[in-house]
Amino acid sequence: MKNFLILLFFPFNLCYAYYLNTNTGAHFDDSDVKVYITSNSDCTNTGFSKEDILDYAITGSEKLWNSVPTANINIKKGGVLNTNDSLYLTGRLCDSSESECSSSVRVPTYKDIVIACNSSTDNFPNSQYLAISAPNDVSGKEIKGSIILINDTEDTIVDGLSKAEMISLMAHEIGHAIGLGHSDKDEALMYYKNSENRDRLSQDDIDGVTYLYPNRLDGCTSILGTIDDTNDETPINKNIFLSFLLGVALFIAYKKLVSRVLQIAS
C-alpha cells in the first residue's frame, strides 16, 4: 500500500465582523490606560454626576476589557482633569487629521482618555445620540489621546438610562477610545446599534481587543492567528498555526490507523 501525505487545514472562526477605529489599527502603546473626566463637566442634563460617569466607565472596563485573558490592557481610573477649557463642553469633536480640529474639542496630548459632558448639537443632532468617542490624537499606529463626549443637551435621553445601562454605554465608548470600531454581530458590546443587556463581551469583542493589545508570554506574542485589516475591511482571523497543528495531529492519527489495518490484514 502506498502512503500518501495528507495535510488537513481546518479554519476556525474564519470570519470576524469587528472593525478598527483607525485604518492603521492604532492602539495605546502602554497597556495601562487611564481615564479622566473634565472638572468643568456639570453633566446637569444627563442625570448623573461626573464622578458617577467616571466610576461607570471604570466599572465597565474592569468587568469587561480588563478581564480578557488574551489581551494585555489595564484601564484604570485617572480621576478629575482640572481644566477650564469650555470647548470640552460645547465644542465639536473632530478627527485629528482635520485642519480645523485645533479650534474644536482639545486633543488630550498629555492624558490617555478624557470624558466630558457636551451640549453641542453638532455632536448630538438629536436626543438618540447617547455619546460619541474618537481617538483624536493618533500618530501612526499609536493612540496618544482619546475623547469621549456624553450627550448633555437639553433633550438628551441619557437621563433615562439605568446604572447598568450607563455602565454598558461607557464600556462601549471605552472600546472606541482604545481603538475598536463597531461590530456587525448583534451580541457584541461593540455592536453598531444600541441594544439591551450588553453586559458581557462576545467573541467578536474579545478578538478585536486581543488583536490591538495581544497578551505576551515570555517576551513572545501569543499565537492567535493573523488578522487582515490592510484595506480597512472586515478583519479575517486565519488561525494558521492552530490549523497546522490540527492537520499534523490528524495525519499522525491516520498513519497509526493505516499501520493497525496493515497489521490486521497480514
Summarize the structure.
The model is unreliable at 1-17 and 218-240 (pLDDT under 50).
Corresponding CATH architecture of one domain: 3-Layer(aba) Sandwich
Which sheet architecture does the biggest sheet show? 5 strands, mixed
Give the assembly state of these chains: single chain
CATH superfamily of one domain: Collagenase (Catalytic Domain)
Q: State the CATH class of one domain.
A: Alpha Beta
- The CATH topology of one domain corresponds to Collagenase (Catalytic Domain)
Q: Give the helix level as a range of percent.
A: 25-40%
Flag low-confidence runs: 1-17, 218-240
Q: Nearest-angstrom radius of gyration? A: 23 Å
Apparent shape: elongated
Order of helices and strands: EHEHEEEHHEEH
Mean pLDDT: 80
* Strand order, sheet with most strands: 2-1-3-5-4
Q: What percent of residues are in strands?
A: 15-25%
